[in-house]
Amino acid sequence: MSSIISKIMDFFYFSHVKEKSEREIYVTDLAECMQKREFYKQSSIFPAVHGNIVHFAVQSLLLKYGFKIEVPIEYKLKNGYVLHGRVDALSPDNVPIEIKTTSNIKIEHVFQLMVYMFVLKSKSGELLYVSNNTVRSFLVDKDNIQSTDTGEVFKNTIVINDDVLNNYANMYLEKKLIAHLGQCKECWFKDRCKYAKL
C-alpha cells in the first residue's frame, strides 16, 4: 500500500473504528444486517473511506453555519446495555441530520435517523445524500418521508420505541439480526447470501 493511501486509510477509516465496551451496542449495529457486515469483512470493499471523506467535507461546511457535528447520543436499554451513536450533524433547533453517500434512500438510514430522533426527542430529521454529481435531501418525521427536490411524500413505516430498540438489541446479541429491515433488495451481496429475502 502506498504511503498516501496508508495515510488516507488511517485518517478516514481506521481512526473511526473504536473498540466497544462489553455493555455497548451502536445504533449502526441495530440498523445493519449482521450478514452484510460479515460479507464486508471478507471483501476488499471499504465504503466507509469514501463516506468518511464526504462526511468530513459536508460537516466542515455545516460547522460554519452553527451546526454541531459528531454529536454523541446514549440511551439505556432495558437489558442493561447502553445504545451509543453519533449524529452526523445537529441543527441549532435540534434537528438531526445524517449524511449518506449513496444515491438512493435506504430503510436502514431511515431507521438510524429515527433512533436519533427518538433519543433526542426531535420531531423531525433530515437525510442528506451526497453522491457523484447529486445532492438530495429527505425530511423525515414519524409519519412521512418527503423528498425536498421533488416534493414526493412516502409513508414512513419505521416505528421506534423502547420495545423495538430492546427487541433489536436482543436479536443483535443473539446474532439473529439478519435482514430485519427488508434491506436485501439493495444489498451488494444478495446473490451470495443464504438469508436473502427478495
Write the SSE topology.
Blueprint: H1 3-12, E1 24-26, H2 27-31, H3 34-42, H4 47-64, E2 68-76, E3 82-90, E4 96-100, H5 107-120, E5 124-131, E6 134-141, E7 144-147, E8 153-155, H6 162-173
Parallel strand pairs: 1-3, 4-5
Antiparallel strand pairs: 2-3, 3-4, 5-6, 6-7, 7-8
Can you put this structure into words, describing what you see?
The structure is a single chain. With 198 residues, the chain is an alpha+beta fold. The chain has a single domain, classed as Lambda Exonuclease, Chain A, CATH 3.90.320.10. It contains six helices and eight strands, in the order αβαααβββαββββα. The chain has helices at residues 3-12, 27-31, 34-42, 47-64, 107-120, 162-173, and strands at residues 24-26, 68-76, 82-90, 96-100, 124-131, 134-141, 144-147, 153-155. Strands 1, 2, 3, 4, 5, 6, 7 and 8 form an eight-stranded mixed beta sheet that branches. The longest helix is centred in the N-terminal third of the chain and has 18 residues, at 47-64. It is globular, with a radius of gyration of 17 Å. The N and C termini lie far apart (38 Å).
The gross shape turns out to be globular
What would CATH call the architecture?
Alpha-Beta Complex
- Sketch the topology as an H/E string, one letter per element: HEHHHEEEHEEEEH
Q: Round the mean pLDDT to the nearest integer and report it.
A: 86
How far is it from the N-terminal to the C-terminal residue, by CA?
A: 38 Å
Fraction of residues in helix: 25-40%
In total, the number of domains comes to 1
Portion of residues in beta strands equals: 15-25%
Number of helices: 6
Query: What structural category arises from helix and sheet content?
Result: alpha+beta
